[in-house]
Design goal:
Layout lengths: L24 H25 L6 H12 L9 H24 L19 H11 L9 H26 L5 H13 L7 H30 L5 E4 L6 E6 L6 H5 L4 E6 L9 H4 L4 E4 L7 H7 L3 E4 L14 E4 L8 E3 L5 H9 L11 E4 L3 H6 L1 H9 L5 E7 L8 H9 L4 E6 L13 E2 L2 E2 L1 E5 L4 H14 L9 E6 L3 H12 L6 E3 L8 H11 L2 E2 L3 H9 L2
Parallel strand pairs: 2-3, 2-5, 3-4, 5-6, 6-7, 9-10, 9-14, 10-13, 14-15, 15-16
Antiparallel strand pairs: 1-8, 11-12
Length: about 550
């Protein structure tokens, strides 16, 4: 196997024996094979659009198939076998539709004519032979750009799937996914064309995040500042982790079960339509990489909704998956029926007593921040607020991530810290005080809520009649998986410069490609909190 798509990849180059995430070689091979099949499907989907053939089933399947290959989503070989066979079946049907419409169905690429093996072992062997879904004969820098592009497409597919669940879709997004995977078969594209596609990926991801934002706020309302308990109530309990805001709450209402969030679900407490459920109580635990210890100690049922699952061997009877998440031997809940989860929660002891562990504040998405924009602007103009830091991104277990907690602790007291995604768990419970009634630590939400951060930055730039790069705003980001890659590409598409990225740079970026990013966007690796703060603030 070879996998280098996450920040924690072995030795900083790539996992070759087993994934640091827990992925086995057979699953890695099946993921590569599924993307190969998606590339074939995309050739026909892209050709179909040229003659007016657009298939909603193809669109939704494409997102689900790609999303399944993200880090920490699906580890179940049987599920991948099913997806591969389904992809081939859908591709054959689409090919016929495109042919009937007079579209091109003659493609030389092997992906367009892929035939899967009849058993799991055969599929694994095919995947091992194919490897990464890039042009292995291309020069190194083009391969690097293709990997950046593919990982960006993975992020888009994930966000598009989240958005579609909430009823928000745009064929422009689906069309680009198909165009992008089809482009991987074009050996004539040069360095500049691939750079253009990478930036286009950022543009499309912006639109995708806009759709997701509309889905979340349209269904659940705009987040409002909310105090979230970190302790627990006596009684039966369910812990929900992941990112989708599934309506588990309605099915558990009146059953004597408290629902707690974990990881990136924390911002769910700020949504009015979720807050109204009285048994939606608090937050348990911290970031995804600590779940083995935290889940083993949780006295109720656990539901994984979209990603971030780790080996649950110590609590297999208590954990459930839904959506695209999968782990061999873990019961999978389909079609939004959380009955099995509820039954298990009722059978488990729950918390024996109340416990107060303090609280944190959430709900500072764009509407909330913009509602106090006059105070923020006044604070800047009178000198009370000197700087804004967006300290955001993914958390992880690899050493070096303490940088972010130290950075926040050492940031000047006349600065505001904006944060989002699970990277905030390095400092989310810090009591940083306020400036003129505005909390110094503002939790914008999930990584999915990066759209809010962009809108806040644009609004501030408009208020001060300058560009985003001219604001007293610095971006200090941590990355782990492919959604973070998509967000970074969006920031680059928007022309945002001087981003500090860590804890290490992606293994799939070559020196020449990094040089392009440095020259055009002044992107730079983090160093130490003291050095970076001094450089940012001109000290």
């Amino acid at each position: 196997m070879f996998c280098n798509q996450c920040e924690q990849t072995a030795k900083g180059t790539g996992c070759t024996v087993a994934g640091v995430c827990g992925k086995k070689p057979d699953v890695a091979a099946l993921q590569d094979l599924l993307l190969h099949a998606v590339k074939g499907l995309s050739l026909y989907a892209h050709a179909g659009r040229q003659v007016g053939v657009v298939d909603p089933e193809v669109n939704r399947f494409t997102c689900k198939a790609i999303f399944s290959t993200l880090t920490n989503v699906d580890f179940d070989p049987a599920r991948f076998q099913e997806l591969i066979n389904q992809c081939v079946e859908i591709t054959a049907q689409l090919k016929e539709k495109v042919a009937r419409a007079g579209g091109n169905v003659s493609f030389a690429d092997a992906a367009a004519n892929f035939r899967p093996a009849t058993d799991l072992a055969g599929l694994v062997k095919q995947g091992e032979e194919i490897g990464l879904v890039i042009d292995h004969d291309a020069e190194t820098d083009i391969q690097s750009l293709q990997q950046i592009f593919v990982y960006g497409l993975k992020g888009i597919a994930a966000y598009a799937d989240h958005a579609a669940i909430l009823g928000q879709e745009d064929d422009k997004v689906y069309g680009f996914l198909h165009e992008g995977f089809a482009a991987l078969t074009n050996k004539e594209l040069g360095l500049n064309e691939w750079i253009g596609l990478v930036l286009k990926c950022g543009e499309i991801n912006l639109r995708t995040m806009e759709l997701l934002d509309a889905g979340n706020t349209g269904k659940f309302g705009h987040p409002v500042p909310t105090e979230v308990p970190l302790g627990h109530k006596q009684g039966k309990c369910i812990l929900i982790s992941g990112q989708d805001l599934h309506d588990l709450l309605k099915q558990t209402e009146g059953k004597g079960i408290y629902v707690y969030t974990h990881g990136e679900m924390l911002p769910a407490h700020g949504y009015p339509e979720l807050k109204k459920y009285k048994h939606f109580y608090g937050h348990y635990g911290t970031a995804w990489q600590n779940q083995k210890k935290e889940f083993a100690a949780f006295p109720g049922a656990i539901l994984m909704t979209t990603n971030c699952i780790q080996d649950p061997k110590d609590y297999m009877d208590n954990i459930f998956t839904t959506g695209l998440v999968g782990w061999p031997g873990v019961q999978h809940v389909k079609n939004g029926d959380f009955g099995p989860v509820i039954e298990r929660a009722l059978a488990l002891p729950g918390f024996a007593s109340d416990e107060d562990k303090g609280s944190v504040m959430v709900g500072f998405a764009r509407n909330t921040v913009m509602s106090v924009a006059d105070k923020v602007i006044a604070g800047v103009k009178n000198g009370d607020i000197k700087h804004f830091f967006l300290v955001a991104g993914c958390d992880g277990a690899k050493p070096g991530r303490n940088y972010y907690s130290e950075f926040v602790e050492k940031a000047p007291k006349d600065s505001i810290i904006l944060t989002l995604a699970c990277g905030k768990f390095r400092f989310f419970d810090k009591k940083l005080g306020d400036i003129g009634g505005i909390p110094r630590l503002l939790d914008i939400g999930q990584c999915n809520d990066a759209y809010s951060a962009v809108q806040i930055a644009v609004a501030l730039a408009n208020a001060f009649e300058c560009g985003v790069n001219d604001l007293p705003l610095s971006l200090v980001l941590s990355w782990y998986e492919q959604k973070a890659v998509a967000i970074l590409l969006t920031l680059l598409y928007l022309g945002i410069k001087n981003i500090r990225l860590g804890p290490s740079l992606p293994a799939f970026i070559t020196p020449n490609v990094l040089d392009v990013l440095v020259k055009n966007f002044a992107i730079k690796p983090i160093t130490t909190p003291d050095e970076d703060l001094a450089a940012i603030l001109g000290q």
